[in-house]
Design a protein that fits this description.
The structure holds two protein chains of two kinds. Chain A has 24 helices and two strands. Chain A has helices spanning 12-26, 31-59, 81-108, 119-138, 142-160, 166-197, 202-209, 214-232, 240-244, 250-274, 282-301, 306-327, 330-361, 372-375, 377-391, 397-412, 415-444, 447-460, 464-477, 484-487, 505-523, 525-541, 543-549, 552-555, and strands at 62-66, 75-79. Chain B is 64% helix and 0% strand. Classes of the chains: A mainly alpha, B mainly alpha.
């Protein structure tokens, strides 16, 4: 390495957000300063990540040993093509979601509800979350990966329970306990790995695990895989996700859906390719992929709340990535990486759109929404494009990502691989079905029809007081609507607002930018695919990673 | 310090059986507690599992030795790496348990009990069953089963 005369940038993606978090905490009295600090830190990470992508592509993996220990002993940060790409995508997503959140905070700042969600805590926590994600992507050893996970998990605990309202506490409880369990499993996996090999450095492990008894190696693999699969929400371990994500604030759900599960997927890719290249678990993973896809999407089809539908499609589409990993071929890995990139962006933009739908329609239940296409044509366009992209309608990136995986599956050609390919296509169609249901009900159906249904529902609602509360909320949240609260008669206002509020420009802008990035992936699909092919080639060869991390005498 | 790198590593680790039994006991009891309905018990279960894992790192570090200070003979000192790792893990679990304690207190404030709530689907099915019993004119085809859930959600997550 070192062909490129650029100082080593590796610590920056972790340090910038952490320093930003400290500053944001210090400036907690001033919203304005907090915003400037957060945006600056995350924009810095985007730039650094872009440079890293270029650097790793031109001159191979970048390595930094911290703390001046003798080389294989200390903590190493490593960026190869995969890490750098993940870092770039995640930093772009976090920056755009931050802009969305700022837009939301801005729009709510005069509001009584805003006091419930203390934004002074939001910014530092969000930055720490970004630092944790970056640390996980750059970790060169298992234990540092664990620390990265813990950093991002802990900030996610805070973000998911933001405001401490009943539904969020309920959701948060499940989430925290499940995460604790997966962390304990991960720790056990690390302990077992250390006992068997005497190291936790990934590159060194790659060499030493090859010499282990296959039974021992299998135990290590299963232990790590289970821990990561919980975080990635792979089928038997996916039940926590649709229960915990939907209640959080829109930007939080968006960034969780986009990033957190993908960090788990990244860890699976990393350990499967680097540590256990001759995977004896291909069949098991293929089954997991198939079940994740099919059961996840059946969950989505049966739901009527937009957020829950999207949470289930999130689980379902994790199956595609596991499919690519399970094939353990270069094409499969490349397809999985491409899918991760595509899915991070699309899933985030869909959740941001949901946040806007909730603002405009006052609900995310399909029973109560209608006429959104008329109310906000731009929002409808954004949803339509993203939904088509997620379901894999040509020529969008979702289609390209799925084609890549299907190709890889057919190339492997085992009966099980064919079954999973078929499952993937069915899942894609069912995704289209679930999302067109959203489209036809929430966006396309005339408002009057939606109102009839909502009216019936409202009449049936026994609790008048609850309705009044809702009416008050709706009135109070319209700009300049504070005076109408007292004038509003009790119990007649419906959740389907007849005069929808204008959407805050910044939120709409961030969402549009997110969708545009999704379209951009389609445009640059050629170069991106070539990049993921190179990244997958690196991963399968393993040499570039190992030789750049370890000094010669340790490599043997 | 070269011994620490264990270059040319061969697993010469002889696990301490007593410690292994302690790990098994702690994790087993912790798992049993974690399956309970009460959040405080779940929390205690998590503490025990965490402690069990911490002891596991002592097993992993091999034979006990002298404190691993610089200048100590590597042959007689214990392996410092698992200790460094487990200290980190203990600090992290301390913070997490603290957070979970606060969470269960808040849960108790809100609902008057620290029972882990039913998940959304369970609650929905229960509500359907309950509504069926109490209402005669109940028209199921028109009812949005998610209404109150979504309303609560809508009210809160807008903030």
């Amino acid at each position: 390495m070192g062909d490129v005369p650029v100082p080593n940038l590796l610590p920056l993606p972790v340090l910038l957000p952490l320093l930003g978090a400290a500053l944001a905490l210090a400036f907690r009295r001033s919203d304005r300063l907090q915003r400037i600090v957060s945006i600056a830190a995350l924009a810095g990470v985007v730039v650094v990540a872009a440079v890293l992508v270029w650097q790793t592509d031109v001159s191979g993996p970048q390595v930094l040993w911290l703390g001046a220990w003798q080389e294989p002993l200390g903590i190493s940060l490593v960026a190869d093509r995969l890490s750098a790409l993940m870092l770039l995508v995640s930093s772009v997503v976090t920056l755009l979601v931050l802009l969305f959140a700022i837009g939301q905070g801005h729009a709510d700042s005069d509001d009584e509800v805003a006091r419930e969600t203390p934004l002074s805590i939001f910014h530092p926590t969000y930055l720490v979350l970004t630092a944790g994600v970056a640390n996980a992507f750059l970790a060169g050893d298992l234990f540092n990966l664990f620390v990265g996970f813990e950093i991002l998990l802990f900030s996610s605990y805070v973000l998911i329970t933001l405001g401490g309202s009943a539904s969020r506490i309920h959701a948060g409880t499940t989430y925290v306990v499940v995460s604790l369990l997966s962390s304990a499993l991960f720790l056990i996996g690390i302990a077992a790995t250390y006992a068997a090999t005497g190291t936790v450095n990934l590159a060194q492990l790659a060499i030493r695990i090859g010499g282990l008894d296959p039974g021992v190696a299998l135990v290590l693999q299963l232990c790590l895989l289970t821990a990561f699969a919980i975080k990635a929400a792979v089928f038997p371990m996916s039940a926590w996700l649709p229960d915990s994500y939907p209640t959080a604030p829109a930007p939080v759900t968006a960034v969780f859906a986009g990033l957190l599960t993908k960090v788990g997927v990244y860890a699976i890719i990393r350990t499967q390719t680097l540590l256990f290249p001759a995977s004896p678990l291909t069949d098991l993973l293929l089954w997991a992929a198939l079940l994740t896809m099919v059961i996840g999407i059946l969950g989505a089809v049966s739901q009527s709340g937009l957020k829950r539908i999207l949470s289930f499609t999130l689980v379902s589409h994790i199956g595609y990535m596991i499919f690519g990993i399970a094939l353990s071929t270069q094409a499969g890995t490349a397809g999985a990486i491409f899918y991760v990139v595509h899915h991070i962006i699309i899933q985030t933009s869909l959740f941001l759109i949901t946040g806007l739908v909730e603002r405009i329609g006052g609900s995310t239940s399909l029973h109560r929404l209608g006429g959104l296409a008329l109310a906000s044509p731009l929002l409808a366009t954004l949803f339509f494009v993203s939904a088509m992209n997620l379901s894999g309608v040509p020529p969008l990136s979702g289609f390209l990502a799925k084609i890549g995986l299907v190709d890889a599956g057919i190339a492997v050609g085992t009966p099980l691989a064919w079954v999973v390919v078929a499952g993937g296509i069915v899942t894609s169609l069912l995704t289209l079905y679930a999302l067109s249901k959203v489209w036809s009900q929430a966006f396309w159906r005339p408002l009057s029809e939606a109102r009839e249904v909502a009216e019936l529902a409202a009449e049936e609602a026994a609790d008048e007081a609850e309705q009044f509360e809702q009416a008050e909320l709706d009135a109070g949240r319209r700009p300049g609507g504070a005076a109408t609260i007292t004038a509003a008669p009790t119990g007649v206002a419906l959740a389907v607002d007849t005069s929808p509020r204008a959407l805050p420009r910044m939120m709409l802008g961030a969402t549009a930018a997110m969708t545009a990035v999704g379209l951009l992936i389609t445009l640059v699909a050629g170069p991106l695919q070539a990049f993921t092919e190179r990244a997958a080639a690196d991963l399968r060869q393993r040499d570039p990673y190992i030789t750049s991390v370890l000094p010669e005498e340790v490599r043997r | 310090m070269t011994a620490l790198a264990r270059a040319g590593f061969e697993s010469t680790l002889t696990p301490n059986l007593t410690l292994v039994l302690v790990v098994v006991g702690l994790v087993a009891v912790g798992t049993a507690l974690a399956l309970d309905r009460s959040l405080v018990r779940v929390l205690l279960g998590m503490v025990l599992i965490g402690n069990g894992v911490a002891v596991l790192y002592l097993v992993v570090s091999g034979r006990a030795g002298r404190a691993p200070f610089v200048g100590e003979d590597p042959a007689t000192m214990s392996d410092p790496l698992p200790q460094a790792m487990v200290l980190t893990a203990i600090v992290i679990s301390l913070a997490t348990i603290g957070f979970l304690l606060a969470l269960s207190y808040r849960l108790w404030q809100i609902s008057g009990t620290d029972d882990v709530p039913d998940d959304a689907e369970d609650a929905r099915i229960q509500r359907l069953a309950r509504d069926d019993e109490t209402s005669e004119t109940y028209d199921r085809s028109e009812e949005s089963t998610t209404t109150s859930d979504e309303r609560a959600e809508a009210g809160e997550s807008r903030g």
